[in-house]
Amino acid sequence: VQLQASGGGLVQAGGSLRLSCRVSGGTFSNYAMGWFRQAPGKEREFVAGINWSGQYYSNSVKGRFTISRDNAKNTVDLQMNSLKPEDTAVYLCAAAPKTRIRSTLLSSSGHDDWGQGTQVTVSS
User: Fold this and answer.
1) What are the residues whose beta carbons fall under 8 Å from the beta carbon of 121, sequence distance 6 or more?
2) 5 burial via Cβ count (<10 Å: 0-12, 13-18, 19+)
3) I need a surface site. Which of 21, 67, 107, 117 has the fewest CB within 10 A?
4) Cα(84)–Cα(82) distance, rounded to whole angstroms?
């Protein structure tokens, strides 16, 4: 399966961005999807995910970010509001078999396929 992320950019603190990830080469409804991010010098961290049981978020973005998927368009989006400078990172979308349990989906090792990432920069 191939994943293509888009929608990153430069925004001021307090602003919004919407990321999108298009999936091809597989049956989209068979996958749990996740967004991760990686800032320079830091480890990759979980941001948000969506599977058969619903959406789930890291504490750092809960209430500000919303993940959604469109199974007809094979896309998963991440709406990011009230952005902060600490949200600056490369954002990556990832896919995992839908049968994988949520605790596993909270880590990057729980995902098998990755997109190339899109840069999000939040200025203060």
Assistant:
1) 8, 9, 10, 11, 88
2) buried
3) 107
4) 7
Instruction: In whole angstroms, give the CA distance from residue 69 to residue 57.
Output: 15
* C-alpha torsion sign, points 111, 21, 66, 58: positive
pLDDT per residue of the chain (124 residues) written in tens, 0 to 9: 999 999 999 999 999 999 999 999 989 999 999 999 999 999 999 999 999 999 999 999 999 999 999 999 999 999 999 999 999 999 999 999 999 999 999 999 999 999 999 999 999 9
Asked if 21 contacts 95 with a C-beta cutoff of 8 angstroms, the reply is: no
**What's the CA gap between 81 and 28, in Å, rounded?**
26
